[in-house]
Amino acid sequence: MRSLPQIIWLLLLGSQLIAQNPHGTQLKVDCRSCHTPDSWEIAPDWWQKPPSPAASVPRFNHSVNTDFELEGRHQKIDCRACHETLVFAVVGQQCIDCHIDLHQQTLGTDCRRCHDANDWLIDDITALHQDNGFPLLGNHLLAECTDCHHSESYLKFERIGNLCVDCHLQEFQATTSPNHVAAGYSTDCSMCHDMTLPDWRWVAGAANHLFFPLTGGHAINDCTKCHIGGNFTNTPTDCFACHSSEYMATTNPDHEAAGFPTDCSICHTTGPGWAADNFTQHDALYFPIYSGNHKGEWNNCNECHTTAGNFKAFSCIDCHEHNNAGDLADEHDEVGGYSFNSTACYSCHPKGN
Ligand code: HEC
Ligand code: HEC
Ligand code: HEC
Ligand code: HEC
Ligand code: HEC
Ligand code: HEC
Ligand code: HEC
Ligand code: HEC
Ligand code: HEC
Ligand code: HEC
Ligand code: HEC
Ligand code: HEC
Ligand code: HEC
To answer: What is the mean pLDDT of residues 94-117?
Structure first.
């Protein structure tokens, strides 16, 4: 049995419905999903209250019955705040349709990229910069937002650019020691500097010194040993320019007396100790040891140069022994002028063949 008010209400519905409906003709939802017989007004907390067990129609649920889920703070606000006219279908769906773009078009119109309906705070500024290809590291992490985003209003984020020089051009132009502009340095500061080091210190390690690889004995931290007085320009690359005194002081072998070329790299690498570990010229100058029959047959220079401190002296017969079987003698049966000493061997076999 229906109560009298209910019956009256149902009758009213039939007759007054069209006249009274402020929601537009497209509304597909039953009036009873939202209204009760008591009044057309709806108390704001009604939506949160449990539905009456007597209700004949299920209560309207925005998240289920429309394509716009009410999330976060949107769940707590009055229907009219969004549906001013009460014609529910006439409503914007994009954040920017209802919210003022405080960023003044500097961040685009897709607010969802950074915001949701809970609040306007951005939790992960770090990730935001990472996504922009500019991870905030070192000195940059310590800087204020406004140090980089200079706009008058804090919320205006005009494009700055990700390149070091986009922000550090003034410092670049003001350098004196060394004067970067005069030296023609690249404006890619990261070639030589690290944003995680303070005070524009030189990037640690030798890896960035691409102009002249700092390998072996050159892997030193005291830049002024090569860049005298902190002058980074016109540093010579020629070995002799920096190592002439060592060359002149050599005794074993005496380079000057032997007429060695002053391009040390012909015989030396930068490996510490001046071992002649690149002495391939030995073959052409003296005796083939990196090619020919003796290639791979010796381990140390002193197997031939058996007199310590004297490369002029050498021995063949420490290897080519005058043994009991008399092999060597046999080989030279027919050879006039044969004698068993190294100088003789060398004079008849200057190329070891
Ligand atoms: C999806 C929910 C919903 C449905 C369905 C619905 N209404 Fe409403 N109606 C509202 C809300 C919300 C208000 C505003 C209530 C308030 O401000 O307290 C309202 C207000 C009204 C008002 C008062 C208008 C005014 O200016 O204050 C009338 C009349 C009304 N509705 C009629 C109807 C009729 C008739 C139907 C069915 C054809 C209907 N409504 C269906 C939600 C609904
Ligand atoms: C934060 C803003 C917001 C609030 C608050 C809000 N709505 Fe909506 N509503 C929307 C948007 C946006 C749409 C459009 C969805 C679509 O186009 O499918 C919509 C769609 C609807 C529709 C479907 C309209 C149609 O014909 O497609 C109804 C009905 C509706 N809302 C009723 C309500 C009622 C009732 C309340 C209060 C309980 C409410 N809305 C609160 C934003 C809101
Ligand atoms: C149909 C209109 C409408 C749409 C669309 C809409 N909002 Fe809202 N939103 C409102 C209204 C109205 C309020 C309550 C009044 C206010 O705080 O501005 C609100 C409140 C908020 C709040 C709470 C503000 C506060 O100060 O607590 C946030 C956050 C928010 N909206 C974010 C969003 C985001 C993000 C989107 C897009 C995903 C969005 N809104 C889409 C109308 C809308
Ligand atoms: C690229 C990310 C990004 C986008 C896109 C974005 N915002 Fe923001 N928004 C921010 C940041 C960052 C803040 C500062 C929040 C903070 O300090 O936690 C902010 C703050 C806000 C605030 C709060 C301001 C205050 O302090 O009262 C509002 C309102 C806002 N944004 C609206 C929007 C609207 C509307 C859109 C879409 C047109 C939008 N935002 C798009 C990043 C974004
Ligand atoms: C050291 C410089 C620096 C600092 C400090 C900095 N940013 Fe940025 N920010 C950038 C750069 C570079 C971008 C990349 C976009 C560009 O070229 O402008 C960027 C981009 C953004 C964007 C736009 C992201 C997008 O997707 O459109 C927002 C928003 C932003 N920063 C907010 C902040 C906030 C808030 C802070 C302080 C908490 C901050 N930034 C601190 C350099 C910085
Ligand atoms: C979006 C602007 C921006 C970009 C791009 C940027 N920086 Fe910075 N940088 C800053 C700000 C702001 C500071 C902190 C304030 C200051 O010391 O100038 C800073 C500080 C530094 C410092 C510390 C300076 C000091 O005096 O201690 C170094 C080093 C540095 N940045 C290197 C770099 C390098 C390398 C790059 C490129 C990979 C780069 N920066 C790109 C804005 C930027
Ligand atoms: C080719 C390498 C190289 C490049 C590229 C380079 N620098 Fe330098 N920079 C140096 C060296 C070397 C020093 C001196 C370091 C030292 O004394 O420890 C220096 C020192 C500095 C100093 C402090 C000295 C002074 O006179 O103020 C600043 C500031 C500086 N650089 C800024 C920059 C900026 C900004 C960029 C990019 C736009 C940049 N540098 C690019 C090599 C370079
Ligand atoms: C073993 C010697 C040596 C050491 C040590 C050395 N450099 Fe160099 N550096 C050179 C030479 C040689 C050049 C010139 C390369 C060329 O012109 O091709 C050079 C070039 C440079 C340049 C480029 C100058 C220009 O005008 O293009 C910079 C900057 C530089 N060095 C910085 C440093 C810093 C900083 C250190 C200390 C960490 C250092 N160097 C240590 C030998 C050295
Ligand atoms: C034709 C080859 C050759 C050239 C060119 C050469 N060296 Fe040497 N150097 C040697 C040989 C061989 C040794 C002895 C290596 C050993 O003891 O293992 C040597 C040893 C040295 C030694 C250590 C021995 C001593 O007497 O102090 C120094 C220092 C040295 N060289 C400096 C230089 C310098 C500097 C240059 C270039 C300006 C240079 N060398 C060019 C072949 C050469
Ligand atoms: C701009 C100056 C400069 C140039 C050019 C230069 N060097 Fe050096 N070299 C040095 C300095 C400085 C040291 C470190 C010496 C010290 O610690 O006293 C060094 C060390 C060495 C050492 C290690 C010496 C030892 O005692 O262990 C070798 C080997 C060497 N250099 C070879 C070379 C060769 C080969 C070349 C040419 C390809 C060359 N250098 C070019 C400055 C230079
Ligand atoms: C298989 C034998 C053999 C080996 C191994 C050998 N040498 Fe020699 N070397 C000779 C001969 C033979 C000569 C020529 C001697 C002459 O003309 O007085 C010579 C000449 C030299 C000279 C010139 C001496 C001078 O002042 O005229 C130098 C320097 C030298 N060798 C260095 C080396 C070094 C360094 C090594 C090791 C990397 C080496 N040799 C390995 C056989 C050898
Ligand atoms: C470190 C030991 C060693 C020293 C020192 C040495 N040789 Fe040899 N020599 C050999 C060996 C091992 C062979 C054999 C290579 C083979 O079987 O092809 C050889 C082969 C030869 C051959 C024969 C090549 C052939 O046609 O079969 C001659 C000639 C020769 N050496 C001359 C000399 C002379 C001259 C000297 C001194 C300047 C010298 N050797 C110093 C190890 C040495
Ligand atoms: C007067 C010149 C002369 C002297 C000195 C000399 N040889 Fe010979 N050697 C020859 C001749 C010629 C041959 C034979 C070449 C042939 O049969 O192809 C020969 C052959 C050899 C062979 C064998 C080559 C092979 O093809 O099997 C070796 C090894 C050899 N000599 C090493 C030495 C040694 C080590 C010395 C020093 C002790 C030495 N020779 C002294 C001229 C000489």
So the answer is: 94
Structure tokens belonging to residue 161: 């650019």
313, 253 contact by CB (below 8 A): no
Task: Please list, in sequence order, all residues whose beta carbon lies within 8 angstroms of the beta carbon of residue 308, skipping any fewer than 6 positions away.
Answer: 302
Rounded to a whole number of angstroms, the CA Rg of the chain reads 45
Q: What is the rounded average pLDDT of the residues 159-182? A: 92
- Ligand 8 pocket, CB under 6 A: 183, 192, 202, 209, 211-212, 214, 218, 220-221, 223, 225-227, 232-233, 235, 237
Q: How much is the pLDDT for 15? A: 45
**Cβ neighbours of 13 (radius 10 Å):** 15
Instruction: Please state, rounded to an integer, the average pLDDT across all residues of the chain.
Output: 87
Can you tell me the distance from the alpha carbon of 120 to that of 101, in angstroms, rounded to the nearest whole number?
Answer: 12
Dihedral over Cα of 136, 140, 141, 144: its sign: negative
Neighbours of 37 (CB within 10 A): 14
Q: What are phi and psi of 5, to 5 degrees?
A: -55, -40
